[in-house]
Design goal:
131 residues; alpha+beta; Nucleoside Triphosphate Pyrophosphohydrolase; two-stranded antiparallel ribbon; 2 helices; 9 strands
Length: 131
């Protein structure tokens, strides 16, 4: 029997002028210090789209356009299984700030390889780079 936790995550592919917004995870949390596409875990009964809106409001202080599903990836960590739902969106209101993360950066797809991301993000990064 599989007793691992299954976690649903919504992440935003926030595009502006050909660049994606990435955020650095706080040190001391799971995968701390690594870069990611901003988002977070879904709460019970919360839709993926509502989760993404809430997380981006809490973490970055922004409101987004309607999230458009892009890709789903699944990754097995020793202690849990993560299902990442990536959505394309853009900033509707506000200026992205590092409220609940270490840092933010706008990067073109070719620059993504210069940043250290969790293993679960690698298939998406390859897709964005056209590999």
């Amino acid at each position: 029997m599989d007793d691992k936790r299954h976690i649903q995550v919504a992440a935003g592919l926030i595009l502006r002028e050909g660049r994606y917004l990435i955020a650095r995870r706080k040190v001391g949390v799971h995968l701390g210090g690594l870069w990611e596409f901003p988002g977070g875990k879904c709460e019970p009964g919360e839709s993926l789209e509502d989760c993404l809106r809430r997380e981006l409001r809490e973490e970055l202080g922004i409101e987004i356009t309607t999230p458009v599903p892009f890709r789903v990836t699944r990754h097995e960590y020793p202690e849990k299984t993560v299902e990442l739902h990536f959505f394309r969106c853009s900033i509707l209101d506000g200026q992205a700030q590092a409220i609940d993360c270490e840092d933010l950066c706008w990067v073109i797809p070719e620059e993504l390889a210069k940043f250290e991301f969790p293993p679960a993000d690698q298939p998406l990064i390859q897709a964005l780079q056209g590999l």
